[in-house]
Design goal:
Blueprint: H1 2-12, H2 34-47, E1 53-54, H3 66-77, H4 90-104, E2 113-116, H5 120-130, E3 136-141, H6 145-153, E4 157-162, H7 173-179, E5 184-190, H8 202-215, E6 218-222, H9 237-240, E7 248-253, E8 266-269, H10 272-283, H11 291-294, H12 297-302, H13 306-327, E9 342-343, H14 354-365, E10 367-368, E11 370-371, E12 383-386, H15 391-406
Parallel strand pairs: 1-10, 3-4, 3-5, 5-6, 6-7
Antiparallel strand pairs: 2-8, 7-8, 9-12, 11-12
Helix pairs in contact: 5-6, 5-10, 13-15
The structure holds pyridoxal-5'-phosphate.
Pyridoxal-5'-phosphate is lined by residues 58, 118-120, 144, 190, 194, 222, 224, 253, 255, 261, 266.
């Protein structure tokens, strides 16, 4: 038994060394984010002299606006080099609460906010705090792979809701309702959505809010791409129905909109009793978010927005270009996404699985993309391309894809 479990963990974690003392059984259930693995393989090919076009990684190719960098430097110079409270600095929590009142139109204060190193820990902590073994969690598929990974890790039952291309990757509320059972504790939504760029319609958000209130579930609303929308204004589940506030864990942060992925600054907004539980998980893991990083919140959220506006209009231009260029390739069709910086083209007519297409594109054409199945089984037939790259690189990548597809 011990050997069996040992082998399985080793196999999953690709540990080749024999006689490693077995890792904990729970490691078998922990998934990963393929983007980092593809990036590593692409870098290896580059080290061998190949030129690779990177359309795999989901981070802005812009630098953090200068006034935010300056704020961090002066914060460090003035001695912000110490621990802070686990839930976040009081002034940072208050500024985030003010931002959420302004951007989501809902009444919250600093007690509702927990500041974390990037927004990702909010997923991890929320699921750890809420989900017992056997509890069910509904999550989007295709969707960000960490949702399913963490639910499994804690012994919960992940229940996928399929996002269909024919609905512009929105979700079917009747289908969602049919998946809710007496054991459903949490519904995860993500709008704008990674990997499809889809945005949930107002009536869908309203129906999800109603469902959560009627069936007594929490909603984890991953709104990390909230400011990256192209057609109309962003709508939060909290706009759709402010009464759902006590059931919602709002996840957002600085990584995407403010080009601050490496700063690790994110937050969750949730009922204060849950915020205290999440802060305790932080005490047990990270202790707190870096103090100097937290001290840029005020100038970042309420300072000049020119750089951000420039970045967003560039993403808009790139979206239109990449969608047009992909649709011109025989065998590929691509919906025009309403948000985020990803496209999710359908490649099923090429006669390859998504994984085969992604692997061959990297090996044969030198274009790094992600298989749709990196985001769950319903991603079969699709690839994810990030257009957080220069227009020149995007066009080089799409031209390479076109030539490669022609030669299949
Ligand atoms: N949520 C989604 C849907 C994401 O795509 C990402 C990052 O890729 C995150 C959350 C995490 O963001 P952060 O870098 O702030 O941890």
């Amino acid at each position: 038994m011990k050997v069996l479990h040992h082998n399985r963990v080793n196999e999953l974690l690709t540990i080749e060394k024999p006689n490693v003392i077995p890792f904990a059984r729970r490691m078998v259930d922990l998934g990963t984010e393929t983007a980092f693995e593809v990036l590593a393989k692409a870098r290896q090919l580059e080290a061998q002299g190949r030129t690779i076009v990177h359309l795999e990684i989901g981070e802005p190719d812009f630098n953090t606006p200068a006034h935010i960098v300056e704020a961090a430097v002066s914060s460090l110079r003035s001695g912000a080099t110490h621990y802070g409270p686990s839930a976040g600095l009081p002034e940072t929590r208050a500024a985030i609460a003010r931002y959420v009142v302004e951007t989501r139109g809902v009444d919250v204060n600093a007690d509702w906010v927990v500041v974390t190193p990037g927004a990702k820990p909010i997923m991890f902590f929320t699921i750890l705090a809420l989900i017992d073994p056997g509890d069910e969690v509904i999550y989007p598929n295709p969707g960000f792979p960490i949702y399913e990974s963490v639910v499994r890790f804690v012994g919960g039952r992940p229940v996928p809701i399929r996002l269909r291309e024919s609905r512009d990757f929105g979700l079917d509320v009747d289908e969602l309702s049919s998946l809710v059972t007496g054991r459903t504790k949490l519904i995860i939504i993500n709008s704008p959505h990674n990997p499809t760029g889809g945005v949930l319609a107002s009536e869908t958000l309203r129906a999800i809010a109603r469902l959560a209130m009627e069936r007594d579930c929490y909603i984890l609303a991953d709104e990390i791409y909230s400011q990256i929308v192209y057609d109309g204004a962003f709508e939060s589940i909290l706009h759709a129905n402010p009464e759902v506030r006590d059931r919602v864990i709002l996840l957002d942060g600085m990584s995407k909109t403010f080009a601050m992925t490496g700063w690790r600054l994110g937050w969750g907004v949730m009922p204060p009793e849950l915020a205290r539980a999440v802060a305790r998980l932080q005490t047990n893991s990270n202790s707190c978010t870096a103090t100097f990083s937290q001290q840029v919140i005020e100038p970042a959220l309420f300072g000049p927005r020119d750089d951000i506006k420039g970045m967003l209009s560039e993403f808009h231009r790139r979206r239109d270009t990449i969608v047009g260029a992909l649709n011109a390739i025989p065998g590929i069709r691509c919906r025009c996404p309403a948000g985020a910086f990803y496209v999710f083209p359908n490649i099923s007519e090429l006669g390859l699985t998504s994984q085969q297409a992604a692997t061959r594109l990297l090996d044969e054409a030198g274009v790094a993309t992600l298989s749709g199945t990196s985001f769950g089984s319903f991603g079969e037939g699709f690839l994810r391309l990030s257009y957080a790259n220069s227009m020149e690189n995007i066009m080089e990548g799409v031209n390479r894809i076109g030539r490669w597809a022609k030669g299949l």
